[in-house]
Amino acid sequence: MPVPATKYRRVLLKLSGEALLGDRTYGISPQYVRYLCEEVKKMHDLGVEVAIVIGGGNWLRGAQAAEQGIEEATAHYMGMLAMVINALALQSGLEALGIPTRVQSALRIDEVAEPYIRRRAIHHLEKGLVVVFAAGTGNPFFTSDTAAALRAAEIDAEVILMGKNAVDGVYDADPRKVAGAHKYEEMDYRDLLEKRLQIMDSTAAALAEDRKIPIIVFDLGQADAMVRAVKGEHVGTLVHSH
Fold it and tell me: Residue 232 domain-assigned?
């Protein structure tokens, strides 16, 4: 009997908007977008079905805009539009590598993206397309982390790959600021919530725990980390249910 090439068949990759910055402080680095797309291609070439949820923090964070006096719900919708911009950048980068890609938006923008339809998304994945979910959940007051957990549950993803910038897992303190911070090789959702480690928001963690979807937290800057994770190798920190 042949040994499967990967441990996971269908994955949800969560990227923050800041993941597209590269060495910039604002906007999008085309070079880093290409690097990320090449890493996704490595998974796709193994036959893994890949869906992506992308944030918009490289352009705008709704919560921060609200602090500047913009009405809060409106500020969150502005953040969702930033997510659409990033999704289109990923689509362009993936298709430049020959990977057929569809953007599905939780907000209707028919000229540039399909509306989010669960069954259509699953059909795309089964046909070998990468699907990028844009505009979060389509509702204000929910983060892109929550959108990732929600979409992962809807499409029956077997794992959430949560890419971080220059942090290779979950620590008990920010390793970029605290010398000697302890890294967790694995942990359960209860510990994540009780210790308030802020690797994701509590709504997302509770939903992933309820649906028993494991999360692998890893450093996006580590080449081959994604493909190693889907093969079942230990990468970063594994967060799971009891």
Answer: yes
